[in-house]
Amino acid sequence: MLLNRSGFPVILLLSVVSVSVFCSKREPKLPEFGRELCAHCSMAIVDKRFHSQLLTEKGRRYYFDSIECSHSFEKSERYSSGSVWFADYENPDRMLSEKAAVLVRSSELRSPMGEGLGAFSSMDRAKNFLNSHKGSVWSRNDEKDY
Q1: Distance CA 122, CA 119 (A)
Q2: If we measure between CA atoms, which residue out of 103, 55, 106, 59 comes closest to residue 82?
Q3: Measured between alpha carbons, how far is 58 from 37 in angstroms, rounded to an integer?
Q4: DSSP alpha helices (H): ranges in 51-104?
Q5: Residue 22: half-sphere exposure toward Cβ, Cα within 13 Å
Q6: Which entry of 34, 71, 136, 140 is 20 to 30 Å from 101 by CA?
Q7: What is the Cα gyration radius of the chain?
Q8: pLDDT band for position 139 (50/70/90)?
Q9: Which residues pair with 91 in a beta bridge?
Q10: In whole angstroms, what is the distance from residue 87 CA to residue 66 CA?
Q11: Domain ranges in the chain?
Q12: 25-57 per-position pLDDT tens digit
């Protein structure tokens, strides 16, 4: 049996490292706000309420300053496939999967790219927001070229 200098079996060490690397959950991570740059427009990501990210099938992580930038990136030649996550507008330290998020477009949402898109955790939360703000629930069918 191969042992390292401390007498720890090398095979066991390699197994632990492999499991931690290859079996880790592919979940979103918050960017380093103010330092991380948007993968599409290169602006610094500073507003927690609007950031989004893409996790590729190969494990690469792309950060965006807005939902609009993530959608534009998805249309680009650089995108292959993966999962998209949006910051919950009401709880920006929480990320919502693209499938679970309800997107709202409102002129009262001051998103970094100016399209006024925000993600909410449910249709009820989105409607609650829209009860006191102008706007509408937005779907990919409403998408324009950004």
Answers
A1: 9
A2: 55
A3: 21
A4: 67-75
A5: 6
A6: 34
A7: 19
A8: confident
A9: 88
A10: 9
A11: 32-142
A12: 578 888 888 899 999 999 999 999 999 999 988
In whole angstroms, give the CA distance from residue 94 to residue 18.
28
- Going 75 to 69 to 30 to 97, the CA torsion angle's sign is negative
Sequence-ordered list of residues with C-beta below 8 angstroms from that of 133, at least 6 positions apart, any chain: 106, 108, 109
What the block records as the tokens of 1 is: 């049996």
pTM: 0.75
Amino acid at 125: R
Q: Closest Cα to residue 137, out of 109, 110, 112, 114? A: 109
Q: Is 145 helix (H, G, I), strand (E, B) or coil?
A: coil
30 Cβ neighbours under 8 A, 6+ residues apart: 48, 51, 93, 95
